[in-house]
Automatic annotation (TrEMBL):
<dbReference type="GO" id="GO:0000139">
    <property type="term" value="C:Golgi membrane"/>
</dbReference>
<keyword id="KW-1133">Transmembrane helix</keyword>
<dbReference type="GO" id="GO:0005975">
    <property type="term" value="P:carbohydrate metabolic process"/>
</dbReference>
<feature type="site" description="Interaction with galactose moiety of substrate glycoprotein">
    <location>
        <position position="159"/>
    </location>
</feature>
<dbReference type="GO" id="GO:0046872">
    <property type="term" value="F:metal ion binding"/>
</dbReference>
<dbReference type="InterPro" id="IPR005027">
    <property type="entry name" value="Glyco_trans_43"/>
</dbReference>
<keyword id="KW-0464">Manganese</keyword>
<keyword id="KW-0808">Transferase</keyword>
<dbReference type="Pfam" id="PF03360">
    <property type="entry name" value="Glyco_transf_43"/>
</dbReference>
<dbReference type="GO" id="GO:0015018">
    <property type="term" value="F:galactosylgalactosylxylosylprotein 3-beta-glucuronosyltransferase activity"/>
</dbReference>
<keyword id="KW-0735">Signal-anchor</keyword>
<dbReference type="InterPro" id="IPR029044">
    <property type="entry name" value="Nucleotide-diphossugar_trans"/>
</dbReference>
<keyword id="KW-0472">Membrane</keyword>
<keyword id="KW-0479">Metal-binding</keyword>
<keyword id="KW-0325">Glycoprotein</keyword>
<dbReference type="GO" id="GO:0050650">
    <property type="term" value="P:chondroitin sulfate proteoglycan biosynthetic process"/>
</dbReference>
<comment type="similarity">
    <text>Belongs to the glycosyltransferase 43 family.</text>
</comment>
Length: 273
């Protein structure tokens, strides 16, 4: 009998002492997800649902960018086994102002305000991003406004913060360096008490792209020293701003005329995608 010898490669991981096992999960995490009937909506929400079903004490607010909700998405959310509320708010398509997910996030914020919770955290989770399960433990460290690095932003492998004596003193970003808070939507989390102020923060469309987040955060805190770096002891990224490459899809009619001439199209199964 021949013996095969293997070379075992050992990979050295840098272990950080992360005390996440006893994170208090009594605060509800309100996860706000704008979504639209665009490329990959169903796979994006399927993937996010698989992530969220593993997280304790969350309330997923999914807001459809349409004049009505979509029964196929409702069915998907029901199957996800996550506590959810499905709402709708349509984007003003006539406006030339920039900003995706604005009306939808504001609709969910209005909804949470009506619940009038005394405790809880709000996190904006776009449908196409990728989330590590430990992210949801880290979010719960927040007292008022937590911030954390986000992977794959523009040309940056990740955007992060300059921290000194436990405080945020600067940002590492590669665009919009004149923004007061250079943070992506996935990089901050806010306590619900911010929503019960007299003039609660809301998202606003602007002529410029990429300022939604700073504009919102400027309504929550006044200076960067108030931002709590909640993932400072992590040596890895917990959320990535992934994007799906949108391919022009064929309609059934286009498929028929391009490829269907010698096929029995009555046997083409019509599926929800
Ligand atoms: C970046 C930020 O990560 C977003 O949070 C921010 O809203 C956006 O820029 C912006 O400033 O407008 P990006 O990946 O380019 O994000 O945006 P998308 O992922 O395409 O859209 C953000 C969210 O809005 C998604 O959950 C998406 O489903 C939703 N959306 C997008 C709509 O509800 N309606 C739309 O027409 C487009
Ligand atoms: Mn996105």
């Amino acid at each position: 009998m021949s013996v095969t010898s293997f070379t075992v490669f050992s990979i050295a991981y840098h272990h950080v002492n992360l005390n996440l096992n006893n994170v208090d999960t009594s605060k509800t995490l309100y996860i706000i997800t704008p979504t639209h009937n665009g490329y990959g909506q169903i796979p994006h929400l399927t993937r996010l649902g698989i992530t969220l079903r593993q997280v304790r004490n969350i309330h997923w607010l999914v807001v459809e960018d349409a004049p009505t909700t979509n029964p196929n998405i409702e069915a998907l959310l029901r199957r996800s086994n996550v506590k959810y509320t499905y709402l709708h708010a349509e984007t003003d398509r006539k406006s030339t102002m920039q900003g995706r997910g604005v009306e939808q996030r504001n609709c969910a914020l209005d909804y949470i305000s009506k619940l009038n919770p005394v405790d809880g955290l709000v996190y904006f989770a776009d449908d196409d991003n990728t989330y590590d399960l430990e992210l949801f433990k880290v979010l719960r460290r927040t007292k008022y406004c937590g911030v954390l690095p986000v992977g794959l932003l523009g040309q940056m492998p990740y955007e992060s913060f300059e921290i000194m004596d436990g405080k945020v003193v600067g940002f590492y970003a590669a665009f919009g360096l004149d923004r007061k808070f250079q943070i992506d939507m996935a990089g901050f989390v806010v306590h619900v008490s911010a929503l019960t102020k007299n003039n609660p923060p809301r998202f606003k469309r602007t002529p410029l792209m990429g300022v939604l987040e700073t504009d919102f955060l400027e309504q929550v805190v006044t200076n960067m020293s108030q931002l709590e770096p909640i993932a400072y002891d992590f040596d890895r990224i917990l959320v990535w701003h992934t994007k799906t490459q949108n391919i022009a899809l064929l309609s059934l009619e286009q498929y028929k005329s391009n490829y269907g001439s010698n096929r029995d199209m009555t046997r083409f199964p019509v599926l929800i995608y």
